[in-house]
């Protein structure tokens, strides 16, 4: 599927700063896919649904405390303006961590509606009334949900059919499987006294695949023990375990062949 074949995956973003969109999503692969009709993005100004002359969208929190809270009635009016069968996601640091599996799940549907929080947050009643799914892009706090929305959408859009040049690229990336990605090398073959692992120049595709698998396992084990624990604990058939043993042996041979 080329980028000029319409999939029409539709994203709507509820925000106080619509001028932040499409931002970087209007460039490169995502931008070409948008221009080709593969996906679309509309940024909805929450303030347009305010009911007073000052266009107020927030108020002080019940029970006291610092900051302001986005009002449930105004946020919900903004949602109603784009409401359809698409899933609803509220981007918040208290949400469940966003994963590659989530990106694949959302891409499989018709699109998504994203709610970007600001100030101290959104009145909980708005979240509960529409059963918004709460998702976080990481264990840190941003000034608002807009940057999180850009990250979320980029992770999804690049998986749409026809957006990336080669399907294998997406399949081999970190988090697409169960391991982090292996290292990459390109020309020149030597740079500042640093060479390329010999196995990558060998032309032996089986040895290259084994080396990449070994590197992916090593990097995952060292950098993400949580992912490694899930990887080694996953249930496997006898055939899969036997195949893994053969692959490990090939990787070991490939590594020895690479050693100086």
Question: Quick gist of this model?
Answer:
This protein has 260 residues and is an alpha/beta fold.
What quaternary form is this? single chain
CATH architecture of the largest domain: 3-Layer(aba) Sandwich
Shape: elongated
Helical content (DSSP H or I, runs of 4+)? 25-40%
Strand order of the largest sheet: 2-1-6-5-7
Portion in beta strands: 15-25%
At the first level of CATH, what is the class of the largest domain? Alpha Beta
What is the CATH fold-level name of the largest domain?
Alpha/beta knot
Strand/helix succession? EHEEEHEHEHEHHEEHHH
In total, the number of strands is 9
- Distinct helical segment count: 9
Mean pLDDT: 89
Written description of the protein model:
The protein has 260 residues and is of the alpha/beta class. It has two domains: 9-157, 3-Layer(aba) Sandwich (Alpha/beta knot), CATH 3.40.1280; 178-258, Trp Operon Repressor, Chain A. 38% of the residues lie in helices and 16% in strands. It contains nine helices and nine strands. It has helices at 28-35, 72-80, 100-107, 124-130, 146-157, 167-172, 205-223, 225-233, 238-258, and strands at residues 9-15, 39-45, 58-59, 69-70, 88-97, 111-116, 133-136, 190-191, 194-195. The strands form three sheets. Strands 2-1-6-5-7 form a five-stranded parallel β-sheet, with helices on both faces. Strands 3-4 form a two-stranded antiparallel sheet. The protein has a two-stranded antiparallel ribbon with strand order 8-9. Helix 3 (100-107) links the parallel strand 5 and strand 6 (111-116). Helix 7 (205-223) crosses helix 9 (238-258). The chain is elongated and about 70 Å long.
């Amino acid at each position: 599927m080329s980028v000029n074949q319409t999939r029409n995956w539709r994203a709507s973003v509820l925000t106080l700063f619509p001028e932040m969109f499409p931002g970087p999503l209007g460039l490169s692969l995502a931008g070409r896919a948008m221009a080709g009709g593969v996906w679309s993005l509309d940024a909805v100004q929450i303030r347009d649904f305010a009911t007073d002359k000052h266009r107020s969208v927030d108020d002080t929190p019940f029970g006291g405390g610092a900051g302001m809270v986005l009002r449930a009635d105004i946020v919900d009016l903004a949602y109603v303006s784009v409401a359809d069968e698409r899933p609803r996601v509220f981007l918040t640091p208290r949400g469940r961590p966003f994963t590659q599996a989530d990106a694949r799940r959302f891409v499989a549907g018709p699109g998504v509606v994203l709610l970007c929080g600001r100030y101290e947050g959104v009145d909980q009643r708005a979240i509960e009334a529409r059963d918004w799914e709460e998702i976080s892009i990481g264990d840190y706090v941003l000034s608002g949900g807009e940057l999180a929305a850009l990250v979320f959408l980029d992770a999804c859009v690049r998986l749409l059919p026809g957006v990336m040049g080669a399907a294998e690229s997406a399949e081999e990336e970190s988090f697409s499987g169960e391991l982090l990605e292996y290292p990459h090398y390109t020309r020149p073959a030597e740079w500042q006294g640093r060479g390329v692992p010999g196995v990558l120049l060998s032309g032996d595709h089986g040895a290259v695949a084994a080396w990449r698998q070994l590197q992916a396992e090593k990097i995952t084990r060292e950098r993400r023990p949580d992912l490694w624990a899930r990887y080694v604990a996953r249930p496997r058939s006898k055939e899969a375990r036997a195949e893994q043993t053969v692959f490990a042996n090939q990787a070991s041979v490939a590594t020895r062949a690479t050693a100086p």
